User: Which sequence fits this backbone?
């Protein structure tokens, strides 16, 4: 039987480790309940302000050697701090539709739809860009999608705690419901002749980014009102999906700021 040392440290039952300074700051800003906080021994005053905030929020602080944090996070850049809190859970399609039907914000909704993005680092980076660009939510399918795990939270730098993620059973059906609610669907496709800079993104918009290599699935593509591309001036034919997502979302933000 393997020893507990060989298995490595484990999170308290029912809780998920969240590591990294920015991720912890996001937890504290949102008021997410923290159970424990593991802090690397010897960090001194570098993390003291965050530790003090976590204690005020009710967390128990446990100093740990760096090796323990390395093993828990499987070598990820934890920056000397790991918090334990309830796992992130995605909201439902019904929750999204209720929000859209009761929309009261001055600006029209801007949603990011990820179709088949399975890499957790890309998912986290997309969440970070979506939150920074002022998107109102991110849609993913239950299948063929990256999970909302600790790595996503780390890469998202706090955005996973602030931007709603909606998980839908059938993406094509969800897109049809968005259309019925007055949302225009814009998909990204490299072969499109229309640039994303020429598409109106100031109206209620759902922007779809497909998986790297395969792009959008057929049913997703068929649901689009518009297809747009990113003009490429160099020799490469495509960009990393998280990079392309950031460009498209900030183009939407630019258009909306000019229109306001």
Assistant:
């Amino acid at each position: 039987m393997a020893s507990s040392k060989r298995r490595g440290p484990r999170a308290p039952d029912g809780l998920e480790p969240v590591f990294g300074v920015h991720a912890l700051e996001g937890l504290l800003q949102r008021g997410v309940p923290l159970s424990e906080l593991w802090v690397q021994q010897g960090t001194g005053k570098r993390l003291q302000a965050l530790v003090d905030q976590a204690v005020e929020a009710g967390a128990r602080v446990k100093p740990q050697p760096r090796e323990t944090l390395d093993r828990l996070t499987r070598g990820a850049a934890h920056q000397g701090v790991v918090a334990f809190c309830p796992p992130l859970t995605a909201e439902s399609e019904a929750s999204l539709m209720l929000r859209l039907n009761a929309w009261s914000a001055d600006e029209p909704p801007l949603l990011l739809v990820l179709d088949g993005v399975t890499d957790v680092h890309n998912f986290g980076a997309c969440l970070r860009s979506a939150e920074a660009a002022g998107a109102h939510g991110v849609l993913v399918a239950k299948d063929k999608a990256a999970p909302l795990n600790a790595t996503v939270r780390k890469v998202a730098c706090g955005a996973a705690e602030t931007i709603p993620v909606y998980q839908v059973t059938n993406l094509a059906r969800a897109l049809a419901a968005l259309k019925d609610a007055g949302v225009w669907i814009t998909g990204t496709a490299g072969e499109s002749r229309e640039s994303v800079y020429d598409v109106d993104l100031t109206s209620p918009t759902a922007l779809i980014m497909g998986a790297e290599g395969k792009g959008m699935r057929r049913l997703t593509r068929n649901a689009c009102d518009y297809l747009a591309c990113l003009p490429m001036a160099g020799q490469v034919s495509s960009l990393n999906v998280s990079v392309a997502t950031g460009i498209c979302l900030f183009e939407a933000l630019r258009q909306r700021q000019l229109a306001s």
